Predict the 3D structure of the following.
Amino acid sequence: MPEIFEYFQYGFIQRALICGTFIALLCSTLGVLLVLRRLSLIGDGLSHAAFGSVALGLLLGVYPLYFSIPVLMLCSLGILKLTERARIYGDAAIGIVSSLGIAGGVVIVSSAGGFNVDLFSYLFGNILAISRGEMYLSISLSIIVLLVVVFFYNELFSITFDEEFARVSGIRTGRINTLIVLLTAVTVVLTINVVGILLISALLILPAVTAMQLSRSFRGTLLVAAWTSAVSVMGGIVLSLALNTPTGATIVLTGFSLFLCALAYRRVIP
Amino acid sequence: MSESAVAVEHLHFRYNSFEVLEDITFEIVRGDYVGLVGPNGSGKTTLIKAVLGLVVPSKGSVRLLGEDLRSFRAWSKIGYLPQKMSSFNPHFPCTVREVVSLGLFSQKKFPRSLHRTDERAVDRALDLLNISDLKHSRIGELSGGQQQRAFIARAVVNNPEILILDEPTSALDPETRESFYDLLRDLNASQRMTIVLVTHDIGNIGKYAGKFLYVDRRIIFYGSFEEFCASEDMTTFFGVTSQHIICQRHR
């Protein structure tokens, strides 16, 4: 056990913990909004689309995460417009964009002459390999997104609870919906480093559903989700070091364990 | 200041090829208490949504408090209770107090922060609906009637000039329903609040509302109950017995 604490003096561990905590706060906040609006799978859909954009970035020799931010923003707007204009349900729109991203990624990877080894770290995440530049980018974007959420808290709460009433309150729901999907796109890109493309939706969904078991209020749910998410990420990193397991998957399993604890607590104290 | 609260002119609403509303024209003046009645599928809710800008009519215009709906911004003067909160998620983590406070955001400018006076307004609305003891309860854990009272409190918390309620009493027990109607009558009389109450309960609306708007895709009747009771056209339309029952209850 003592050698676990020795790990904390290494820069890459410190970077992983700091960066992971910011992204955890980001995921939990957006996750609560998405889960309550029954849009949980938008994170999954956008992460699959990220597979295509990461593959394209690698093919073009552009840093995949920078390249993915505008691509995923366009994809998120595509989901929104498909839902609004093409008269199809949100889950179907997410399915279209998701499968398009995967299909595009597979075609790019195969035409590039086989599986690129770099792609693997994007699929399963590698927060321990995060660079100083990536850490600064993640922290900066996390702070910007969290500030946007703080400033638009009441609009987001209103539209999440009852969109029709929000419109009659004079809230421009179209703009707020656009804001939510754009913030989700940025969050998904930042989370690729933490848990990877395949596990992003867990970091968006698990803290939110855990908090919903424990809190009565909307504000309380956001705070408990933030706490749960941060504990999942920090606990998952430490556990992965102790048990020598993949970090991204360990983070998700830690989050799931907290969800089970919350369920058990709710059964004991309803 | 215009005395017109709601003015609708030649409004049509088409869904695919089906004409849901045909050439609807009426005006509600400030202080009116109007019962909007019609059978299921008659377009009552669509009409209310068109008045509030929630759906876009294929033709026609709407004016709220004298101002064209397209440029209308004074949403704090409008209170609205949607039909049975059909989209309401019972697992939503939210206290009654938070739900009622949502009604105050319409009078706030960005970032729509709430202050101490707003908290007092929320407390007053909770008192009015007799649910102060439930303010810290999670909304999804309440009975249907208690939830409905919380949503009514949300609609009246900002003391609106026009209050539009779509089937507000469907989840209420008879006793709560009577006290709710008393509350509406009091708001209408003491604060001259314009009230539009959507219901399909044609038998009872005469007990509460001063005017009667009967819609079945088009306007069948609009006027006072005295006019309704004296109308031979309505006798032909409703039959002597139905008209008699409605008029008896109004008296």
